[in-house]
Specification:
heterodimer; A: alpha/beta; 8 helices; 10 strands; 37% helix; globular; B: alpha+beta; six-stranded mixed barrel; 13 helices
Chain lengths: 235, 404
């Protein structure tokens, strides 16, 4: 049996607070196989963002183990976390988070710059990806000159330039209209199929979650079974 | 280091794309560096100009004059400096090359119905050489003129111009003090103004023997100029002359001198010291402005880190390590600092040249001053660029991304 891309064991996060701290995640056990698309759902305050930050190596668990691609990454230093993010993880955000003073092309090239790839090569790779997301003609534009859908395409291209095995998408359609949102989801799934990238998708939107192979529900920092979550959501 | 070069390139691009912010960041430092260079140049220019004015007097000459102590009825009257003193020094001093007696009085100079008040100096022929004073037209008087107390004179530029205008004064006869006619055998080159704003060229020179014969009833001198054998013997010669004259004037040990022995070098040294203190003061003020410029860079970079929190978060999420973010901000600060310094150096040299030209000072741009201020400016920029860069590197990417 192949190693899963993500495996967490008893993952907990407690933020320092008045009495013994505020628990945000309690004992989350989670497995995501290579090439899976998983939707992470739950009401606000359920710990979705915290979990995503830990999975993205932006944050560290208070307790428990996080194994990424077969390696324990629970206790890495900030420099090491950055290295893991650079080589293993791509991020797509709700609000795109493109660099305003960089062109679409430069935004897409950025991860390769940090990885130390020479400019000629990274520019070729970035142009290819921009072409793949349908934005060849926009490569010299600045984010302010692009529509929301176009910006998210640039963000997706940027997340994938380093060929990471894992893509974390935090409400990728949250800032887009329904039609554009559907196009973006289509694009994500196509890229997933072409490249075998595992995707974890955080979303409120059930129709977006439908695109996933599997849905995981969070409530009060715990993973709950599908039915229980639905029941709770309706109550 | 391809990555290093790339980081520089990206930082430069960012700076060029935000010209307003970049210019504002550089402004303080540019003014600081510019002010520093200009101030150091002002100080040095003023100093040299002051020293040059004193050097006109002759730097290695000792001046001996009669001193008139505070009025005291019991004190002996001072013995004036005259031929006897000249003889004593010439005979007894071992460290002296020349002794020049200079007699001086105010006297009218007239020619062809024109008359103007001026000064007449009775001097030795070597006077001109020792003062590096050239003859613009005609020639100097010589030993023969001295021996026969010849009625010849040299006109200072001012007298030549005022009395003769465009006409040639050579060979003409002017009348000094309304009683002594003399033939103009030379016109002196222009010398300008002395430190006390007196017109040096407002003068007539005659042989000192002629002066003593026709222009005074007492052969006493305004002062003696003594040139030591060597520049290094200046102080030895001074004390030797003091001893000789005290003996010649019969001054008891403990009584004050009735003459003074001084050297322009002392005055120059004093002026030089004063000017140096002034220059240091200016440089210190300018150093403060450099520091303020550095703090300006820090402030703008700090604001910039706050403004660019989201950007820093995004870069971190993408995989930029804290070190890479630190480096990026440091390089930005370094580029801004270097550009600011460059602008400052240009500005400083420009202002210094302009002021030097309009004040008539020598234009002195000391390379070490420029290097120092440039080095100091860059150091200040990097030092103050480090704090914001560190803050950026330590920013928590989660919080950075959440702030929108």
């Amino acid at each position: 049996m192949p190693t899963p891309v993500i495996e967490t064991l008893g993952l907990s996060k407690v933020y320092p607070g008045s009495v013994g701290g505020v628990p945000v995640l309690s004992s989350v056990d989670l497995t995501v196989e290579y090439g899976e698309v998983v939707a992470l759902r739950g009401p606000s305050g359920s710990g979705k963002s915290t979990l995503l930050n830990i999975l993205g190596c932006l944050d560290r668990p208070s307790r428990g183990r996080y194994v990424l691609g077969g390696a324990d990454v629970s206790g890495l230093t900030r420099e090491e976390q950055a290295w893991v993010r650079l080589h293993y993880i791509g991020f797509v955000f709700q609000s795109f988070h493109l660099l305003a003073h960089a062109t679409a092309l430069e935004n897409v090239m950025l991860p390769l710059h940090y990885a130390g790839v020479p400019r000629v090569r990274s520019e070729d790779a970035a142009r290819d990806l921009l072409a793949r997301v349908g934005l060849s003609h926009r490569s010299e534009h600045f984010p302010a000159q692009l529509s929301g859908g176009e910006r998210q395409r640039v963000a997706i291209a940027r997340a994938l330039t380093g060929r990471p095995p894992l893509l974390l998408a935090d409400e990728p359609t949250g800032a887009l209209d329904t039609k554009t949102g559907a196009e973006i989801m289509r694009l994500l799934l196509d890229l997933h199929t072409e490249r075998g990238t595992s995707i974890i998708l955080v979303t409120h939107d059930p129709t977006v979650a439908e695109y996933a192979d599997r849905q995981i529900f969070l409530r009060d920092g715990r993973v709950v079974a599908g039915e229980e979550a639905h029941g709770g959501a309706r109550a | 280091m391809a990555l290093g070069r790339e980081t520089w390139r990206l930082a430069l691009k960012l700076i060029v794309r935000q010209p307003g912010r970049s210019a504002l960041t550089m402004l303080g430092l540019a003014i600081g560096v510019g002010a520093f260079i200009a101030m150091v140049s002002f100080g040095e220019g003023a100093r040299r100009s002051v020293v040059a004015q004193f050097e006109v007097l002759g730097t290695n000459l000792i001046k001996v004059q009669t001193a008139y102590p505070a009025v005291n009825p019991k004190a002996k009257p001072s013995i004036p400096i005259g031929d006897s003193e000249v003889r004593h020094i010439r005979r007894e001093a071992t460290t002296v090359a020349h002794v020049l007696a200079i007699a001086r009085r105010s006297a009218s100079v007239s020619w062809g119905g024109e008359q103007r008040p001026s000064y007449v100096n009775g001097v030795d022929p070597v006077y001109l050489g020792i003062h590096s004073w050239d003859v613009a037209a005609g020639g100097n008087f010589d030993a023969a003129d001295m021996a026969e107390s010849a009625k010849v004179c040299l006109l200072g530029k001012t007298n030549a111009k005022e009395l003769f205008g465009d006409r040639d004064p050579l060979g003409q006869t002017v009348t000094l003090a309304g009683l002594m006619p003399c033939r103009v055998i030379g016109v002196l080159a222009e010398k300008g103004y002395s430190t006390n704003a007196a017109d040096i060229d407002d003068i007539v020179l005659v042989p000192v023997t002629t002066y003593n014969t026709y222009l005074t009833d007492r052969p006493t001198y305004a002062y003696l100029e003594v040139e030591p054998l060597d520049k290094n013997l200046l102080d030895t010669a001074r004390s030797e002359i003091t001893d000789i004259l005290r003996r010649a004037h019969g001054i008891e040990p403990g009584d004050p001198d009735d003459f003074s022995v001084s050297s322009p070098l002392e005055v120059i040294r004093a002026a030089d010291r004063t000017a140096r203190i002034l220059g240091t003061l200016l440089a210190a003020i300018a150093a403060v402005s450099l520091l303020v410029g550095g703090i300006g860079i820090m402030n703008i970079q700090l604001v910039s880190v706050a403004e660019r929190t989201e950007e820093i978060g995004v870069r971190a999420a993408i995989g930029a390590s804290p070190n890479q973010i630190l480096t990026q901000f440091l390089i930005e600060a370094l580029i801004l600092t270097m550009l600011g310094t460059l602008v400052g150096v240009t500005l400083g040299i420009g202002v210094a040249s302009f002021v030097a030209q309009s004040m008539g000072w020598p234009r002195v741009i000391s390379p070490s001053g420029v290097l120092f201020s440039a080095g100091f400016g860059i150091a200040v920029g990097v030092l103050f660029g480090y704090l914001p860069a560190r803050r950026a590197a330590l920013l928590d990417p989660i919080h950075a991304l959440r702030r929108q």
